[in-house]
Each structure stands twice: as C-alpha cells, then as structure tokens.
Amino acid sequence: MNEGTRIKGDDTSRVSLGIGIAVAVLAIGVVIYFTMFFHSVKQQMTGFDPNRPVPDDATLRRRLSTEAYHITRENSTETAFKNKYFDNFRPGIYVDVITGEPLFSSIDKFDGGTGRPTFSKPISKDSIAERDDNSYDMHRIEVRAKRSNAHLGHLIADPTSPSGQRYAVNSAALRFIPTEEMEHEGYASYMSVVTPVAQK
Predict the structure, then answer these.
(1) pLDDT 10s digits, 131-145
(2) What predicted TM-score, i.e. pTM, was given to this entire model?
(3) Which residues are registered as beta bridge partners of 93?
(4) Which of 21, 66, 188, 191 to pair with 91, CA 20 to 30 A apart?
(5) 3-class SS at 86?
(6) What Å distances lie between residue 17 and 10, 12, 22, 48, CA to CA?
(7) Which residues fall within 8 angstroms of residue 104, CB to CB, at 6 or more apart?
(8) Do 173 and 96 form a contact (C-beta atoms < 8 A)?
(9) Using one digit for the tens of pLDDT, what is the confidence trace for 35-72?
(10) Which CATH architecture group holds 57-194?
(11) What percent of the chain has pLDDT over 70?
(12) Are 62 and 108 in contact (CB under 8 A)?
C-alpha cells in the first residue's frame, strides 16, 4: 500500500517536473521571440536608411498615433498651441515620423507665432516636396516629406524669418531627437546641422 502510494507520488513528481520544464522552455521562447521582435522594430526605427522601404498603410495605421496618421496621410492639421513641439527649443533634429529622415534642425527653428513648429529652412531642400494647395478657398504651398509623401504643413512668406520663408509644420508629423540622444539613435553624422557656425 505504502509502496503503491510512493510510486504514484513519484509519477506525480515526474509529471510536475515535466510540466515545469515545458513551461520554462515556453517562457524562454516567448522572451526570445519578443526580444528579437523589438530589436527588429528598433532597427526599423533607428537612424535613417534611404534603402529602407517606406512602411505600407497597414503598418502605418498600427505604428502611428491616430493624430499622426490623420495628419501625414489625410492632410489634417493639429490644434495650434496644443501640440508637442511648438514651444520646444532644445537643440536637436526633427525627423520624419514615418521614415526617420532628418528634415529640420533646431538651429533653424523660430517662434513664428503660429502655435506649431516653425522653421526658416529644411536641413535639405531635396528632402522636401512643395505642392500648390487651393483648399479652403486659399492658395498656399503645401510641404510634404519627399520620400514618405507625408503631409508636413505649409510654406509661407514671412519677413520675420531669417530666410524670408516660414515652414509651419505639424508636430505629429515629426519626431524630435535631442542632441544628447542623436548618436544613440543613429544620427551622429547629423551633429553638424545642430552646431551653430562660428562667427568670423
């Protein structure tokens, strides 16, 4: 009787041990999967690679906030003075929220009184596309990121701007990378665009 009980107890211990090992292996597998998944996502989002394909619409719907999707893909406009970067004057770069391409530098940012991030010029004119915009019975110049075709905002003549032009851009179309994080984020080669040119 005792012997039979012991055998059953040993069998139960073996089953419990087997289940415990299986659960541990499964947990390790899940951790490895998510580690690799997040590493892959980080690689897709870190730095700018001109050879990286622009994400498709389904991916953008998952990845972007509702507001960022409406602005970049449906030409919406965010609320003035109630957005992320209108009053951000920390040194750094502003990149396309879709591709990570550097578009604007903090050096060229100024207070245009629009309640949205305002720049005197882009880092490179080659990264920006300009289109006629006749919506709302007005004639304006729409500004889009050339590579991702994301709606950014509008280009307006502005005598208070150092360039005579004002790029009024939606915060939600941008991601800001402060100077101290640029190297870690894969933008070390862009440090020169946030460094003021020494006066001669």
Answers:
(1) 998 877 778 899 999
(2) 0.75
(3) 105, 177
(4) 66
(5) coil
(6) 10, 8, 9, 49
(7) 93, 94, 117, 119, 122, 123, 167, 169, 174
(8) yes
(9) 555 444 444 456 788 889 999 999 999 999 999 999 99
(10) Beta Complex (2.170)
(11) 86
(12) no
